[in-house]
Amino acid sequence: MKKTQWYKEVTCYQIWPRSFCDGNGDGIGDLEGVLSKLDYLQELGITCIWFSPLYCSPNADFGYDISDYRNISPDYGDNELFKKVLDEAHKRGMKVIMDLVVNHSSDEHEWFRQGIDKNSKYHDYYIWRDGRGKKLPNNWSSLFEGKAWEYNKENGQYYLHLFSKKQPDLNMDNPEVRQEVKDIMRFWLDMGVDGFREDVITFVSKREGLPNALPIPQACGMEHYMDGPHIHEYLKEFREVLNEYDCFVVGEAPMMTPNKALKYIEEGDGMELDMMFHFQHMEADCLFTDFLATPFSLKKLKGAFSRWQEKLYGKGWNALYMENHDHPRIISRYGSEKYRTESGKSIANSYFLQCGTPFIYQGQEIGMVNIDLPKLDDYQDVFVTNNFKTLKLLGFSDAKATARLKSANRGNARTPVQWDSSANAGFTTGKPWMPVNPNYKDGINAQAEMANPKSIFNHYKALIKFRKENPMAIYGDYTEHCKNSKDLYVYSRSYEGKRMLVICSYTEKAAKFIAPEGFDLSKGKAMFCNYDRNEITNNGFTTRPYETRVYVFD
Ligand code: GLC
Ligand code: CA
Q1: Are 420 and 447 in contact (CB under 8 A)?
Q2: In the chain, how many H helices and how many E strands?
């Protein structure tokens, strides 16, 4: 049985290292850069850092294709420097978790290279199959590019890759591979890291025989590897290692639902993961994946929020997030660039005060928005090529497909963090590996945000502080109100006699808010508002664009 509970109380910050801060002027973010910003994170109130992959990688998918699980990439530094970052973070009261990417490795990993030889023990580390005559081993597609199989001339076989062809899937059914995973976990835990974010972990067990799947575009095969036959067995095996350490794990889980999630995270002896990153609230303006756009629906968003809050309460723990390195900036999606600060704060209040552990993605705290680059290739996202083909299949013109993919592109979240108003937003003294959003000159940068008491940065800072000081914000129960509103998201939390009511508008139009029964606004303390005047009429108010308020009742 696990002892650790601190993971429920931390506020996490995700660093995507390539674009966080460059310490040596080569245009690529690195660990020297991270060291120089630890005080900044402490100032914000962060108590846990999640590093997207820092390991050696040929960067086909920027670190999510690992060629050496035990060494930090020379782009970022080395193991010694990482240890220093770890110690310095710990000194500042911050935990540190690593990304663990074990559904696949890089095709440049030693295991893969040696395993091309059918007689090598590493052959069975991956999923190799013969073709069916001239046909591929099965009809599955890659989530990133084309089919899920790549032919290798040297051994005449195909290997499976659910992501890019430079990311061959590991064969988790091989006990030696699972042993490697456990050894890798121990390697970093012994060094002192406090846990892992486990990349697409629910994909690691594939259906025996790898049968053909329903012929849907892009995700063909998914029913045979999502929550596959041995997933719970394997995660329980990994948990035994984790249980020897004071750590936590959060698993990334595409297509996850709360009922299925409880099989992974229900608290008790069988608990496999501490929490999960599901995607349901990321689908309020699209169908399953960002590039299949639909009009933004607040009802869809609220439905996802409440399903997870209600189903998990008292049983399992939620991971709360609105941004990461895989999605465009949230203000540009669910909010409004015109009302950047207002909508940024309304979005913040909507998720941050729910029950669960909040995550902030680099740049989210200063309200960074999408970038407009001339060509799709400029965004440097492997995911896009395939999506372009899918949209064409669906009948989109080149121009429409391009426009859609520009705003749905993962590169939007990967532009360098905007630190100040100096050249390249202070990210680097060299040439940035990816264009910096020119709007850093218009006040979208950390320095300006920190100096302005009414900024998004200072809003997050206050939220983090409040959460630290109020167990209600962490452990309180959750009730949604005004469920029928298309414009307002309203919820309350309560804990040991204390309550709060969170009101968030998702529109620039005026909407009428009347407090739900049992809440007398005049008796509450208004906090985390995004407008100066907080007048109340008839126990309610008419919202200004993206208005948000939180009323706290003692
Ligand atoms: C996860 C990562 C994403 C990566 C993919 C393959 O979804 O978050 O960035 O491309 O897995 O590793
Ligand atoms: Ca650098």
Answers
A1: yes
A2: 14, 22
Q: From ligand 1's centre to the CA of 200, what distance in Å?
A: 7
CA 469 to chain centre: 26
| Phi, psi angles (nearest 5°) of residue 494 | -145, 150
pTM for this structure? 0.98
Is 68:55 a contact under the CB 8 Å cutoff? yes
Strands 275-277 and 248-252: parallel
Question: Which numbered atom of ligand 1 lies nearest the CA of 64?
Answer: 12
> How far, in Å, from the CA of 24 to the mean position of ligand 2?
5
- Mind listing the pLDDT tens digit for each residue in 420-475? 999 999 999 999 999 999 999 999 999 999 999 999 999 999 999 999 999 999 99
The owner of tokens 């998914």 is 222
What does pLDDT average to over the chain? 97
Q: How distant, in Å, are the alpha carbons of 197, 251, 351, 503, 541 from that of 547?
A: 34, 33, 15, 8, 10
At 180 the three-state DSSP class reads helix
The encoded tokens of residue 311 equal 């189903």
CB 286 within 8 A of CB 311: no
Q: Whose CA is nearest to atom 3 of ligand 1?
A: 326
User: Ligand 1 center to residue 458 CA distance, Å?
Assistant: 31
| Contact indicator for 546, 508 with CB cutoff of 8 Å | yes
Tokens of 248: 């936590």
Provide the CA 85 distance to its chain's centre, in angstroms: 22
In tens, the pLDDT along 72-129 reads 999 999 999 999 999 999 999 999 999 999 999 999 999 999 999 999 999 999 999 9
Assign 3-state DSSP to the chain and report helix, strand, coil percentages, each to 5.
35, 20, 45
Atom of ligand 1 nearest to the CA of 103: 12
By CB neighbour count within 10 A (0-12 exposed, 13-18 middle, 19+ buried), where does 233 fall? exposed
